[in-house]
């Protein structure tokens, strides 16, 4: 996103924070497909994915006063969407287990739920492992993989070359893989984390 586009979105988010319904509608139209695509990937249900979209943007509207403090709306939206989808998966799995007490066979739903839960656990281990990385590697990894910035944007913000960003990111991922494989994380959690980096 170019600087003028970023400025434009900052204005829209400020307008939403002030209760502007037209600005909120534009925000919804611009981002709803991203939320839907993420949700349906795990839920495998168009109806439930649409429900996630409604829930996510309802939460954003209800908590609009705090939007002005958010520096990276894209990263914030991913977090809200991830949490809403995970909650939906847990609820569905709970209902499924209640109806099928024998649990002799795991369905694709259970596998998807387990993967999502493990993914959240993996993120916790990643946060711990990040603290052991060199400062610059940790910063670059956070900006690229957590804040969702492009390498070029990170280079501009840190006043370093894109190549240096690429090297730091590569070394950070390599270091995290070593830390996760040699640490106390469960094998399945390590597997999920490695999948997150592909």
Describe this structure in words.
With 198 residues, this protein is an all-alpha fold. It has 2 domains: 1-105, Rna Polymerase Sigma Factor, Chain: A (Orthogonal Bundle), CATH 1.10.1740; 106-198, Arc Repressor Mutant, subunit A (Orthogonal Bundle). It has 9 helices and no strands. The longest helix is centred in the middle third of the chain and has 27 residues, at 73-99. It is flat, with a radius of gyration of 19 Å.
Structure summary:
The model is unreliable at 1-5, 102-106 and 184-198 (pLDDT under 50). Helix content is 79%, strand content 0%.
Features:
single chain; 198 residues; mainly alpha; Rna Polymerase Sigma Factor, Chain: A; Arc Repressor Mutant, subunit A; disordered N terminus; disordered C terminus
């Amino acid at each position: 996103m170019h600087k003028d586009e970023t400025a434009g979105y900052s204005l829209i988010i400020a307008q939403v924070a002030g209760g502007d319904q037209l600005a909120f509608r534009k925000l919804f139209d611009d981002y709803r497909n991203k939320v839907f695509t993420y949700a349906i990937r795990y839920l495998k249900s168009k109806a439930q994915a649409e429900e996630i979209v409604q829930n996510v943007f309802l939460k954003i509207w209800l908590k609009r006063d705090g939007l002005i403090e958010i520096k990276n709306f894209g990263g914030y939206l991913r977090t809200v969407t991830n949490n809403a989808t995970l909650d939906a998966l847990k609820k569905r799995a709970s209902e499924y287990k209640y109806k099928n007490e024998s649990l002799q066979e795991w369905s694709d739903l259970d596998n998807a739920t387990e993967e999502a839960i493990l993914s959240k656990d993996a993120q916790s281990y990643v946060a711990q492992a990040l603290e052991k990385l060199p400062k610059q590697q940790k910063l670059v990894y956070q900006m690229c993989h957590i804040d969702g910035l492009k390498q070029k944007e990170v280079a501009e913000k840190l006043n370093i070359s894109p190549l240096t960003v690429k090297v730091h990111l590569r070394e950070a991922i390599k270091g995290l893989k070593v830390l996760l494989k040699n640490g106390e994380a469960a094998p399945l959690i390590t597997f999920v984390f490695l999948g997150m980096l592909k």
